[in-house]
Amino acid sequence: MPTPDDSSTGDRIKEHRRRARLSQRELSERIPYSYSLLNQVECGARVASAAFTAAVAAALGIDTALLAGPRHVTDTQHGRLAALVRPIRESLALYDLAPGDRTPARPVAELVLDADRLCQEVRATHLRKAARALPGVMGDLTLAAATAPTTETWRALASTYRTAHDIAVKLGFPDLAVVALDRMGWAAGRASDPCLAAIRQYRRALGHAEAEQGLGRRLVEAGQALVADQTSREGLAVAGQLHLGASAVAARAGDSGAVEQHIAAARELADRVGGEAPEVHWLSFGQMNVTLHEMGAAITMRRYDDALRQARAVKLLPATLTSRRSRYLVDRALVEMETGHLDASLQHLVAARRTAPEQTRYHPRTRETVTGLLHTSRRTSESLVGMATWIGL
């Protein structure tokens, strides 16, 4: 019997469209995408983006999971990644078990530094390194919080849960990411830290923004309420990041007016924060962050000419985090491909791979761009073939 991964997203869209007794033309009229794109997705010439899949699912009145395509990695890659995150999954499952007679092996101050170092490793895109070290730090902090709870310990534990979420998202394990955010909320509540709790709502909003626009907006608003009275640099940076999250949610809903409002609000807060703020929960909130989110919103709304203009105006700072630099290069590659600059697109993909191979390899936008290049290039270069093989196409 076929499994959900035995067919492509395009095949499943075609199947459910036919069940609904709709022609391609009729379905295209119900979604904010062209008939041509729908036709290309169904025949396998284009990769269905998450936003496209969510829009089709909404038009057909079915759950997005029924249409979602196979993972962006091969079966072998998936098996290795599943083994890598299994200890993290187990640590998250054991979060509330009594520690027994054990005592923390290391001082809390050292564990706090370890939790922050893991955040740094993820921002440097050392995903495997961070994933291997995370369960041990998480377990020691869980024990410390249970035996001698302090605000500092709970904050550090919440930070490890956030790291678990970030690793899960980047490696393609959305179910694990949801669990990690639940644990983060649990620890942030015990730390009585409104900024951590607000960051959790920001992450939740991004996770729901594709299919549940209203829910994503409500989650951002819940986060904003948590820091509404905060006037510290930390509070202002978190509030600004929430506006950037709101702009992403609005972009996925096609609400350009709301995008502009939230980007403007974020810019104002970035001015008040003064410069980039990498020390605030590794958000690196600042004007550069706002600019990259504005470009990302244009991409989401398929305003590729605007996105290209914005992308070419970006001058990344030397101190830009590796994860952010890589994401910019992947986004730039997609925009160059969509506007017909195929050589430039491939060059930016190669640069992204060189900058952050782990993050680039598993990013769904990398696969979308490589697939587009394969279908639109007049000749397939060795570099493009190598890139396609590397990501598992």
Automatic annotation (TrEMBL):
Q: Sorted alphabetically, which CDD domains does this protein's record hold?
A: HTH_XRE
Query: Per the database record, which ranges form the HTH cro/C1-type domain?
Result: 13-67
TM regions (residue ranges): none
Which portions of the sequence form the region Disordered? 1-21
| Protein name listed in UniProt | Helix-turn-helix transcriptional regulator
